[in-house]
């Protein structure tokens, strides 16, 4: 069967790579999630258990039939169905004759004789199954044989989106009922699903997940509508007057839509039960190699990540022929436990804790609720494993930026940002267009400002920092960064998680939080204030927001002491020493209260400068 993107020519190489990474045995479950013709599942059927899935029933039926071919003996039928079909020339003027041949239409998918034979084959197979003369495996095997047979006499250019206007020589040959036998026995169990992978990924138990999604906007449902009708045997009435296609709405895949594919890959990697994940993709696809690497490294052990490049020959006609080289990629990760995955904010926030999140989580107490009192980019709160999360930041614009990732549909968010970037010609290092876009946003009336505009502008600013003037106008200078695929990966993962968690958004002075959110013994408070020994755009007091000084530090000390009296656990991220200057007031306060503090060593900030951070805990670990 000719099928777009099939892995026949690369099967041996892909199997070799998979087998080098995973010890395949009789207990292994191999899940071919976009099985197509089932090449990879079939390659492993003699070694382990296999599960196949595809959005198209014609694909899963064909793949299943190939996998079980060797065990179909037709004992109850009592004769060889292949020989039976090929020993007669019976025809039926059925659905295919009426709609896909000149017999009763202008469509030239098949000759009248071959269409009549196809109807005879299909009706006979169905009759045998209804009468229980063949079992489920034998039924699917014969349907797979029928699909194989049809492909050799179809008057098409390989797929079924349209028929040829003139008869191809092979389409005029009499159809033969062919087999899909390979003689290799199935060693374990085989299971079949016909659904969108994003709908079922969480319920599929598997050890190895193999992904081979569509690479481009080409919709398989459109290209294989005829085979879908053949397998389903539902004889749809409302078909296209031109192509005869059934409605493809249910068969449409978001994997063939740019950015929706990006979003779905993130979800699949996050939700799968598989320990080992392999992804086939190529350099013509909508997702870049850089994006795939970034997203896979988030969910897998970074040292396990590998991308193998395999040259391949892509079919081209005279219209599409070009000099571009084509490569098939096979990506691999050994997946981390869910609790070890770190989600990074798409905002490059000063003082970000993204790099030390695992250490922070390790020292967090078990409670139901966390208050991230100086939320900033929200790297800590988003990764905290609590039933309820409170995000707070005194900078209401930053709060609105973080909330926007929860508020807006992720796909709509990306499209909005991309359109704004295109409209204002924002590009890496282009100061002129950056300033024009920045001024455009700042000059808009408040009711017309969309926070997603600001996010787009920030992406092209100096180090993507967030800073404002005293009138809350964004005033960071132009930079040499841009909305790249690494940030896209962060945005997609972050947006999915923030929508899944229960997050309350506040924008108030942290000392007033309790008037907005209850603090009790089941609450954990995390404080990451501006550091007295460092200077950033959020602690100089000149940007329209409250700064940070000795008095405010002492106010924070009292705040923590009151929490301690109430037996409310609190963690403070702070700096004890910076550029050989030591905060002796902080050191004395820690000793006086008997708090525990942990030295984290040098943390590299977004400016590239190290800072010596500590964690102060008012509770025992």
Describe this structure in words.
The protein is α/β, with parallel strands linked by helices and 621 residues long. The protein has 3 domains: 1-68 and 191-214 and 253-341, Vaccinia Virus protein VP39 (Rossmann fold, 3-Layer(aba) Sandwich); 73-185 and 223-234, no CATH class; 354-617, Vaccinia Virus protein VP39 (Rossmann fold), CATH 3.40.50. The protein is 33% helix and 14% strand. It has 20 helices and 15 strands. The protein has helices at residues 11-21, 39-44, 57-67, 81-86, 95-99, 112-130, 136-151, 197-200, 220-223, 225-232, 260-271, 289-299, 357-362, 396-407, 410-423, 431-443, 451-458, 485-500, 550-565, 584-593; strands spanning 29-32, 49-53, 190-193, 208-211, 276-282, 306-311, 327-334, 369-372, 388-392, 503-506, 523-527, 570-578, 581-582, 596-604, 610-617. Strands 8, 9, 10, 11, 12, 13, 14 and 15 form an 8-stranded mixed sheet that branches. A 7-stranded mixed sheet has the order 3-2-1-4-5-7-6, with helices on both faces. Helix 11 runs parallel beside helix 12, helix 12 (289-299) crosses helix 18 and helix 14 (396-407) crosses helix 17 (451-458). The protein is elongated, with a radius of gyration of 31 Å. Mean pLDDT is 91; it is low at 315-320.
